[in-house]
Amino acid sequence: MGSTEEDLSKLNSHHDPASPTQPLLSNPTSSSPIEEPTSIVPQDPDSTQFLQISYNYGPRPFKDLPFLILFAFLVLCTFGFGIFSIFNRNTKYGDVSSYTYNSSSSSCVESSSFSLSGPNLDFGFVLFSSSSSGFFKVLIWTLVITLILTAPICFLLLLLLKHYTKQIVYVSLPFFVIMPIFLDVYWFVACTVSSSCSDAFPLVYRILVLVFVLLVVGVIIWIFIANWQRIELTVHIIGVASDALSRNLVLFLVLPLLTIGLLLYYAPIVVFLVFARLNGKIVARESDGEYTCVWKQDSWVPAYYTLAILTMLWSLTAMVEAQVYLISGTIAQWYFCKDDSAPKRSIRSSLRNAFGPSSGTVCLSGLLICVVRVVRAAVDSARQEAPGIVNLVLRCCVNAFLSAIDFLNKFTINFAAITGEAYCASARMTYELLRRNLLSAVFVETVSTRLLGGIVFVLSAVYAIVVWAIVKSVSSLGVDSYLVAVFAWLLLIVVLAFFVHVLDNVIDTVYICYAIDRDKGDVHKQDVHEVYVHLPISRSLRSSFSSRTLSV
Predict the structure, then answer these.
(1) Contact, 74 vs 262, CB < 8 A?
(2) Which of the chain's termini has less CB crowding within 10 Å, N or C?
(3) CA 15 to each of CA 9, 20, 89, 546: distance values in angstroms, whole numbers, following the listed order
(4) Is 186 or 545 the better-scoring residue by pLDDT?
């Protein structure tokens, strides 16, 4: 990665000498002539347990089975009632308009006359399609080409981040400032020239928006300057993670296949939801003394909708956690392998563990994430319905609690993929591991994610501009070319966001593996230790550790 040794030497000059560079639970390299009595050294009741942390290559027992059984029960209920809805459907659902109320029988009967509105609808659709065929043709071809180009773009970005991390980050940083300023000035000038926009936004409001965006850009510049040393460290962390991911490229084949498998699993559930609407009957309803024939669903249909939607949400979060488990297990096997190459069948063993012994742990982790998302959505909807200071305080407390669950869950599933422990045991052991080694996980999670997100945004924006220029030159869409560029930008940014998600999980996994090495006094990847040793330690944990040492 270019001048890696020079950059690491700069980081060494700024490194806190008080932070421990030796593993806290290992013996120092040079022994003291006068040995301390072992009786005065406090021992944690389970410290010997944590000294044995490493990747579990052997057979793993099944963990968190109740949650796997609960998930399987919900899936079976969803498919069972879905199949029942298909065979129990009422074929008269689409004929409600042909039924009229019969006062003599007090029921709805089928009328002989009915409306022929179908051909008009089809004709309108044909007219709509023919008038927009040029736009849709260009849009479809653009999206197809973009989807094909996403694979080489991701591979090229990975290689650039592996070999030229510093250059990529430093080239992208100015665009974080240039692009907002360009868009702000462009909007100001375009709105001033346009009579409709200038009438809607007076000059005073336009100047306020212009100044506000410039102030935000100034804050961004100040953040860059204040955290420049942390950015340099994050550059090396991203480079190490890119190198680890480049040695396990099979992940980019398996992870999309898992996503496709989830979509195929969703397909019958969506069909069941469609057929569930057909379960009911045509009844008469009184309104202002007049009777009309309406469709009434069976009483179990809303409950089935709730069951199916919750099952789909849980399945989605469980699949996301299974992918994190797969990434963590694969990268951990590469990390603890003595040679620099990836071990054989690492993907296969991680898949077997994720969907085998640790499937209950994956389901529990997905359930927690699902609950967090549902509660957060409920809190956001309650904000609009019940505004007030009490609601604001409760919302802040709930969001803080949910963020803590998100943070704890993220590193728990990484640890479970390495050791095969149950969810609660992994959460406790992860906390103890980081606490004993005074490591701060917040730095790894926030700074690298924001830098990678900024790089993805810049690359996607540049690609959208290129697409707009090409579409503008080869077609006569006019203003619609902007819409084509926006769709291409959205597609590329979604794919690159998935790439960032994978790389983030690699960073977290390497971080946990480094903590295990530090705890055992071992070094499996020297280049990783040379970078991660410069991570800031947790100040609160260091103060508590110092006070405990002084009291001893």
Answers:
(1) no
(2) C
(3) 10, 11, 70, 19
(4) 186
- DSSP conformation class of 25: T
**C-alpha Rg value of the chain to the nearest Å:** 30
Find residue 294's DSSP bridge partners: 283
One-letter identity of residue 210: L
Angle value at C-alpha 53, between 336 and 247, nearest 5 degrees: 20
pTM over 0.85: no
Identify the weakest region by mean pLDDT among 349-358, 446-455, 484-493.
446-455
* Joined tokens for residue 377: 């959505």
Residues pairing with 150 in the sheet: none
CA angle 78, 79, 85 (to 5 degrees): 90
Q: To which H or E segment does residue 533 belong? A: none
SS (H, E, C) 385-449: HCCCHHHHHHHHHHHHHHHHHHHHHHHHHHHHHHHCCCHHHHHHHHHHHHHHCCECHHHHHHHHH
Q: Which of 10-19, 235-244, 441-450 has the lowest mean pLDDT?
A: 10-19
**For residue 117, pLDDT beyond 70:** no
